[in-house]
Design brief:
Number of strands: 4
Strand order of the largest sheet: 3-2-1-4
Number of domains: 1
CATH class: Alpha Beta
Helix content: 40-55%
Distance between the termini: 19 Å
Mean pLDDT: 75
Radius of gyration: 13 Å
CATH topology: Beta-Lactamase
Low-confidence stretches: none
Order of helices and strands: HEEEHHEH
Number of helices: 4
Strand content: 5-15%
CATH architecture: 2-Layer Sandwich
Shape: globular
Length: about 100
C-alpha cells in the first residue's frame, strides 16, 4: 500500500477520514458513510508500513504500545481522521504527493 496514493485518493474523494482494517480495502468516510476505496485487501505488511510512515516523526515504540493497548481492548482498525480545531482537508492536501 502506498500511503501517499491513499492520502491523495482520500483528498480527491472528499473524505473526512480513512479507516484501515486487515483483510479489507482502505475505507473512507464520505458524507458520514464509510465506503471502501477500489483496491486490494490490506495485509499485515501494509498496516505495518502505514504505521511506520505515520510514526516517522515520532517515537515508534510508544505508538506501537498504544496500538497494542487498542488491540488488547478489541479495537483493531486504525483510523486517520480529523483532529478537533484543525483543517483536516488541508492536512490531507499537504500530505498528498504533488501532481
Amino acid at each position: 500500500m502506498n500511503l501517499d496514493a491513499l492520502l491523495a485518493a482520500a483528498v480527491q474523494a472528499g473524505a473526512s477520514d480513512i479507516h484501515l482494517k486487515l483483510g479489507r480495502p482502505p475505507l473512507v468516510r464520505l458524507d458520514g458513510a464509510v465506503t471502501p476505496l477500489a483496491g486490494p485487501e490490506l495485509t499485515e505488511e501494509d498496516l505495518d508500513s502505514c504505521l511506520r510512515a505515520l510514526t516517522a516523526v515520532g517515537d515508534e515504540a510508544t505508538v506501537r504500545e498504544g496500538v497494542e493497548r487498542y488491540r488488547a481492548a478489541g479495537a483493531t482498525s486504525p483510523c486517520v481522521g480529523p483532529i478537533p480545531k484543525t483543517d483536516f482537508q488541508a492536512t490531507l492536501r499537504a500530505a498528498a504527493p504533488s501532481r
